[in-house]
């Protein structure tokens, strides 16, 4: 018998927001909806899921805050990254501290170098074409604005997709959130990790050439800049 019956309290019922997101993740997986595709409207989701419109709206806001979806005024809501059932509850709670951020980057190094290596071995002509298109867009925005966070993500996402293993994009996305979701610009720096920009073209060239070692090398170069800027930013705070 417990020494104090007050230590345990009845659990709360599962939130409707979680249920809505689980159902939506299941729908996205079953319908094979790809990043960039438009999701059903709030009205359609309300009717299909038989919940209030405010519930759907709040659930989508949670996804938008995580960068999973993007709402475009007058156009609708679009999927930004791959989603699978259970993926939204992945227990990666990382605090805004230097130690936690650097630990995250250690894991990213392992995942992203392997993803680049596999992409160099498996990428099809069509996937390479999409990859190069994402890179060109990133270069365009970077040269114009000095920063290209969303475009940078789309380029790296095209690499993860070229592996044929959706877990790469899902895991890296969750570990990317603690760094890129704190502020409007990472660490309040518009040019965060901008020194890594030239390595992205070299990374694409390595993958297109099927050069596994070079693909790993360029990925490590990109992450080294990210880590250096993260160290500098957190030390300055």
Distance between the termini: 48 Å
Order of helices and strands: HHHEEHHHHHH
Strand segment tally: 2
Task: Please give the domain count.
Answer: 2
Estimate the global geometry from the Cα principal axes: globular
Question: CATH topology of the largest domain, anyone?
Answer: Four Helix Bundle (Hemerythrin (Met), subunit A)
CATH architecture of the largest domain: Up-down Bundle
Q: Treating each run of at least 4 consecutive H or I residues as one helix, how many helices?
A: 9
Helix content: 55-70%
CATH superfamily label of the largest domain: GntR ligand-binding domain-like
CATH class of the largest domain: Mainly Alpha
Structural class category: mainly alpha
What gyration radius follows from the Cα positions, in whole Å? 20 Å
Structural description of this entry:
By secondary structure, this protein is mainly alpha-helical. The chain folds into 2 domains: 16-87, Winged helix-like DNA-binding domain superfamily/Winged helix DNA-binding domain (Arc Repressor Mutant, subunit A, Orthogonal Bundle), CATH 1.10.10.10; 93-236, Four Helix Bundle (Hemerythrin (Met), subunit A), CATH 1.20.120.530. It is 62% helix and 3% strand. It contains 9 helices and 2 strands, in the order H-H-H-E-E-H-H-H-H-H-H. It has a two-stranded antiparallel ribbon with strand order 1-2. Helix 1 crosses helix 3 (53-65) and helix 2 (42-49) packs across helix 3 (53-65). The longest helix has 25 residues, at 98-122. The chain is globular and about 50 Å long. The N and C termini lie far apart (48 Å). The model is unreliable at 1-13, 89-96 and 181-185 (pLDDT under 50).
């Amino acid at each position: 018998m417990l020494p104090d019956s007050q230590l345990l309290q009845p659990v709360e019922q599962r939130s409707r927001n979680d249920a809505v997101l689980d159902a939506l993740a299941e729908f996205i997986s079953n319908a094979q909806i790809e990043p960039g595709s438009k999701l059903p409207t709030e009205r359609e989701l309300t009717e299909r899921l038989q919940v209030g419109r405010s519930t759907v709206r709040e659930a989508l806001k949670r996804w938008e805050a995580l960068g999973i979806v993007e709402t475009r005024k007058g156009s609708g809501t679009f999927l930004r990254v791959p989603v699978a059932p259970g993926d939204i509850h992945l227990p990666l709670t990382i605090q805004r501290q230097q130690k936690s951020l650097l630990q995250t980057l250690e894991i990213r190094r392992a995942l992203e170098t392997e993803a680049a290596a596999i992409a160099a071995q498996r990428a099809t002509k069509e996937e390479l074409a999409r990859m190069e298109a994402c890179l060109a867009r990133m270069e365009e925005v970077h040269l114009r604005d000095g920063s290209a966070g969303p475009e940078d993500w789309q380029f790296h996402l095209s690499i993860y997709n070229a592996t044929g293993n959706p877990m790469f994009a899902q895991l890296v996305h969750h570990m990317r959130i603690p760094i890129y979701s704190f502020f409007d610009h990472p660490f309040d720096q518009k040019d965060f990790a901008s020194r890594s920009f030239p390595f992205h073209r070299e990374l694409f060239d390595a993958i297109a050439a099927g050069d596994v070692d070079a693909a790993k090398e360029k990925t490590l170069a990109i992450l080294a800049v990210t880590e250096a800027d993260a160290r500098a930013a957190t030390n300055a705070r």
